[in-house]
Amino acid sequence: MNYYKSLVLFVVVFLFFTNNMYSVSAKNQPLSIEELYKKSGFKSDEALIREYEKKYRLKIGTPKKFPFIISDMFGKIDHTDKPPKLELAYINNKIPKDSLRIFIRPVLSKLQLREGDEIYHLKDGTKAIYRSNYGIAYVLEFQKNGVEYFIGIGKSTDKTITVNNLMEIAESIN
Length: 174
Hints:
alpha+beta, 7-stranded antiparallel beta sheet, 4 helices, 26% helix, globular, DUF4367 domain-containing protein
């Protein structure tokens, strides 16, 4: 059930950020992508990652490679799931369609295969599942060192995204 809650939340958040470019500020000017994220409870401070690590006694890795230029990283702790998950958004503020989301939480159970899923392995042998039927996003999930990572790139990007791009992102997380 948590998987479906996460799926719905991902879809809602993704649609909000990709389709909500018409929000305006008090001066009737369109809000910048940074203002939209901050208005939605995101923070641009990496201290949020350390806070989550400390609270859940985890060591969280963050990606170093991306399939497009990243200008900013925002994060927030989503308390709608149990345990709460850390949501990281990597964006290109000049091309809002180019965004990457990573949902992170402690491992609760083994990853479950669903229809259309494909199994891959990271270089260190970690099993990763490519969710080819995810709908609006290219998705890769894997569990490493007690942490579950859910990487998603919206299909609205103009870039051609392949499972290899997602695997490169996953491999760069340390």
